[in-house]
Amino acid sequence: MEDDAQNTAAAGGSARRDRALGVLETLSGLEAEIKGSAIIAAGGEVLASTVDDPGWGQAAVDLLETLESTDGEPLDSSHIATEQAEIFVVTEGDLALIVVSARFVLASLTTFDMRMSLRDLAASHA
C-alpha cells in the first residue's frame, strides 16, 4: 500500500515536470531571445530547465532565494539587467520561473509571457 502511494506521488511529480518542460518549450517559442530558463518549485526543486548543466539550475535557485530574502515580502517579480543579459523572475503560488535572455528584449512582453505560462502550469497542478 505504501509503495502504491509512493508510485502515485512519483508519477504526479513526473507529470508536473513534463508539464513544466512543456511550458518552457512553449515560452522559448514565444521569446526567441531566451538563453536559458528554469521553473523552480517550493523548497528549491528545479522542476524543469532548458540548460543541461545542473549548476545552472542551482544558480537559478540561489538567485531566487537571494531575491526572496531581501525585504521579507513575498517576491512577485524581478528584472535584472547586466551588460551581457537580462534576467527575469516571476512567481506564482509555489512556483517561480527564471529566464535569462539577450539584452534589450521587451521587458513588459517577456514578463507577461512568463506570468501567463506560469499561471497555466500552476492551474494545471491545482
Would you kindly provide a written description of the structure presented here, covering whatever features stand out?
- By secondary structure, the protein is of the alpha+beta class.
- The chain has a single domain, classed as Dynein light chain 2a, cytoplasmic (Beta-Lactamase).
- Helices cover 50% and strands 25% of the residues.
- It contains 3 helices and 5 strands; from the N terminus they run H-E-E-H-E-E-E-H.
- The chain has a 5-stranded antiparallel beta sheet, sandwiched between helices.
- A hairpin with a 4-residue loop joins strand 3 (77-81) and strand 4.
- Helix 1 (2-30) packs antiparallel against helix 3 (107-125).
- The two termini are 25 Å apart.
How many structural domains are formed by the residues?
Answer: 1
CATH homologous superfamily label: Dynein light chain 2a, cytoplasmic
Number of strands: 5
The dominant shape is globular
* Major sheet attributes: 5 strands, antiparallel
Q: What value does the Rg take, in angstroms?
A: 15 Å
Low-confidence stretches: 1-11
The CATH class is Alpha Beta
Percent helix range: 40-55%
CATH fold type: Beta-Lactamase
The averaged pLDDT comes out at 87
Which structural class best describes the helix and strand composition?
A: alpha+beta
Task: State the end-to-end distance.
Answer: 25 Å
Number of helices: 3
Strand order of the largest sheet: 2-1-5-4-3
What CATH architecture label applies?
2-Layer Sandwich
